[in-house]
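Example (one chain per record):
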Amino acid sequence: MVKRPREDGPLFCCAASPLRRSSTQIPLWLLCVSSIVQHDQREMELRIVYSNYAIIGRHLTISEGQTVIRNHGFQSYSVTSVTMPSSLTEIGEYAFQNCSSLTSVTIPFSVTKIGEGAFRNCSCLTLVTIPASVTKIGDYAFYGCSSLTSVIIPESVTEIGEKAFMGCTSLQSVTIPSSVTELGDHVFRCTSLTSVDIPDSVTKIGARVFLGCTSLQSVTIPSSVTEIGAGAFSDCSSLTSVDIPDSGIKISACAFYGCRSLRLTSRPPSLRYHPGPR
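Predicted structure:
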């Protein structure tokens, strides 16, 4: 399906497959001054060249010199791959939301911020490389990326937003850098997550951070943590051991509710544990 360009935005294509030749002529609005559209006589593959990006087949190339991908810029496009320029510094909010055919993304070292919901619901995204230049991963940034299997968050990141990786049901492992001091609410609600390394820089584990991570088996809470939020590890039914330091830690209500297999390797006197119904 080819969509008419917005009055204030660039021409774009959301075709689910290469366009085939038909008796319908090419609409005149495709042949505008700011874009070039080419068609093969045997099989029509849409080729769009715009001033700040190009789409050849199902590959998106963002032009060198562009510094920001604007909010919702490529939302729901049917591209499978993206090339980003070295000039890029920010990926805007919901920039690639619902790009359900996108399989891999390499973010250039010039990018410092991944905006809210930037790759939300990119359900075929299996690989993403986050460079050491990124300092902030916004809320919902990779929410619902159900094919993503592993993530390495670089040491440059100081902030991981709420629900950033929620619904990444194939995510098995994640490395949190020592630059992060707080895990926001609902960051990891990933049913396939088996291991997580919480660095000793973290002082707070937010509410429901690991809620429903049914494959998570063990967790070591560093002595730097002063607070574990409500329901932080609720319903982690495979969690068998947790090492909690006795350092005046505040454990909120239902932090380990429903952890039926849990055995505490250390138990501070202040801990009140409710395993939930069996």
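Caption: The chain has a mean pLDDT of 81.
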